[in-house]
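Board notes (copied after class):
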Amino acid sequence: MNTFSRRTWLAGTGALLLLGCKSDAPATLRVGRTGKGNYDMIIRAAKLEPKDLKVQYSDFQSGHLQVEALNGGSRDFGGMSEIPPVFAAASSIQSFKQIATVNADVNNQVVLVPKGSAIQTLADLKGKRVGYVRATTSQYFLIRMLQSAGLGWADIEPVSLNVSDGAAAFSAGSLDAWAIYGFPIQRALALDGARVLKTALGILSGNYIVSAHVDALAKPELRKAIGEYLGVYKRAFAWQQQHWDDYASLLAKEIDVPLQYAKDAVANRSGPTTLLPVSETSIKSQQEVADVFFDAGLIPKRVDVRPLWDDSFSAVIESRA
């Protein structure tokens, strides 16, 4: 075989090998989720797992850890409350954009007190050890609740704990009160005999932020995957609205509590779960949150949250059935 023929044959063989190795596998979207009983449980229950999209989940105890993962580039997509991005906006790193809002229950954001506690009002928290999760809704609504009782952050002994450490401390009697969110509430009520002192109804907006990494937004295949996954969210929330009893049964198994506690959580919800496009209302709500943290001296500078938002998926969200 002469040199030209040999080179031609090698080039052709290489091209065929590349074609043979070309994958038709669906795009992989790296999704962060917070705790058990999250949105993916609704997706599974409704049998809406995406068929043309591979989802790789990672679990985080709180939204600020989700933001850290997004900023670090290890996740493409994640959800959190309005608060963690405020702390990111006050720092030098924001590698994500806020692309949608999920409006959901706020009665699952509460201050708990132990069984038999003498604490009856928010004013009774003065001088007490109160657990909370830093840079999350629990810190925010605790600040606002204290203000409503004429108290400030310095009037309590705040104890910053992650969710699992907070649960252990509360169960062991090391805390006088615990500002917490989500399904640890049902577990504390069922297992520890805890009592709800106050819910965040009337304090929190109910807005939870859907965010995506800027690199994922810049890649056409991942951008398409994000749009598809938002559509799955929308259909899953519609299913939940029609199947609350089924959801309660699944939730009880997921978080390992008696069914009645899950039913109570569902019955006491402040409203349905809905996916919403970016709006001026959402931006204004988060800005108010940012201002509260600055005024309380808990972030180093006043921040403008508007640059965090990206409304380019709004038409996709509105069109998804």
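Comment from the instructor: DSSP finds 13 helices and eleven strands in the chain. The longest helix spans residues 220-242.
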